[in-house]
Design brief:
Arc Repressor Mutant, subunit A; alpha/beta; Rossmann fold; 229 residues; 2 domains; elongated; four-stranded antiparallel β-sheet
């Protein structure tokens, strides 16, 4: 793990917080700590961190609301790892829809937590400005909107997540498993769910003239093409 990485831990349990801070600092991280959601939001939007570790159960503001606020107010798209005792699909689904990038369920192995934090920090596209531009395609992560030649693309929540993932990897293909993991995490949907969302996404593309942009790559997944033409 590389040194001088920065993390913000938002956790009200003092014992857990002490363990996480001590472990990460022992691996060369610089860790800031907030015991409330309000303090966490203030630190997140005023300082830049490589990753945010966010407890779902906080005394003042629910972790999901904190996640949403950080994603909307921070000037960069900070990667957020949810730390929670809740393990239901519904909670994970809500978290990912609000912008969470990963999920760890209590109790957890501190070594796994550190590895996941390091992996999130290495995804350089998550540290870029909220606007992703690929040719005439523009994606605004803060507004959850995408445009093609300045025409707004009508997208579902899942469609937006898929498009953002494909754009962040452009011009390379993205595997089906990577897309499924990005959208649904550890709770994959029924076998035809992704195909259905891809079909809907293609229809949205057609409405703004983005034909033949979203391609199926046999035995791999999907790829955006021709955005620079």
């Amino acid at each position: 793990m590389k040194n001088k990485m920065t993390a913000l831990l938002i956790e009200d349990n003092q014992a857990i917080a002490k363990q996480i801070v001590s472990f990460l600092e022992g691996h060369g991280w610089t860790v800031d700590y907030a015991s409330t959601g309000k303090m966490g939001i203030e630190l997140a939007v005023s300082l830049n961190f490589d990753v945010i570790i966010l407890d779902l159960n906080l005394p003042d503001i629910d972790g999901l609301s904190v996640c949403k606020a950080i994603k909307q107010e921070a000037n960069i798209n900070l990667p957020i790892l949810m730390l929670t005792a809740r393990d239901s699909f519904e909670d994970k689904h809500k978290g990912f829809n609000l912008g969470a990038d990963d999920y760890v369920t209590k109790p957890f192995d501190l070594r796994e937590l550190a590895l996941r934090c390091d992996a999130l920090s290495r995804r350089t596209q998550l540290h870029e400005e909220h606007i992703i531009n690929c040719g005439q395609l523009s994606i605004d992560s803060r507004a959850h909107q995408a445009t093609w030649h300045d025409q707004k693309i009508k997208l579902t929540k899942v469609g937006f997540i898929i498009l953002k993932k494909l754009a962040s990897e452009y011009p390379y293909p993205v595997s089906r498993s990577d897309i499924i993991d990005q959208v649904w995490g550890d709770e994959p949907p029924e076998s035809n769910a992704l195909k259905s969302h891809i079909y809907t996404l293609r229809k949205s593309f057609d409405e703004v003239g983005m034909r033949n942009i979203l391609c199926t790559i046999s035995n791999i997944g999907y790829q955006l093409k021709g955005l620079d033409d």
